[in-house]
Known about the structure:
Helix content: 10-25%
Number of strands: 12
Radius of gyration: 18 Å
Structural class: alpha/beta
Number of domains: 2
Number of helices: 5
CATH class of the largest domain: Mainly Beta
Amino acid sequence: MSFADAKKMTTLAQLEVARTERISPNFVRVTLTGDDVARIPNHGFDHWFRLFLPQENGTTSFDLPERYDLMGYLKYLRMPGPTRPHQRNYTVRELRHETNELDIDFVVHGDEGVATRWVTRTRPGDRVALLDQGCGFDLDNETDEFVLAGDETGLPAVVGILNDLPRDARGVAFIEIADAADAQPVNAPAGLDVQWLVRDAAARPGSLALERGRAWSPIGSNVYAYLCGEQALATGLRRHLVNTHGVAKKSVAFTGYWRIGTH
């Protein structure tokens, strides 16, 4: 599975907030529940979805397309603005079918952005919807070394991949965070070096992971990279791996979750 497969996914779930918890200085965990949780496949790794959040004022319609291909996207855009839900992409932190619960970890900085405002104000019973989009990570059994890199927005994806990698996998993971207390327990293979990088307050988000990634050199000949977070981190490290170490472009999954200056 890869990011390109997302348009094939059709599982649309209507859920509600069960609870919220501040789990560290910059993260809030939101637990969603509802009968539709049972319909969501557990893809593991960096399982991601499109999250549809209610308008801050008025009534929101969750009559959404079940596929986010061109026609589905046009249907979403044609929804009346005052009732059309906001759409953002997030990663499953944990999916528990036995209790009908799904956890999402939100990075919360101040009061900027639709998702941040929602997560700081939401209460149990509030409705949302999500559309399953599968995984971007594409496990290849021929890979002999992995390099994973992300800032705090990419933390759930990187931690999920570490949890589900084969236990004999080797490589390195660079996870950049704004506060040492934001680090989370990781179930990584013994041969994978997990480095938590605490960014200086004045530094550009993603810059420390990018710097460490550029200083890293592969040992194996068949490298697979997964890069996520601020746009400059994902694209900059991809360019470096391809141009400096000859990593095949098809062996680098990268996604810019956000760009500095936009919300």
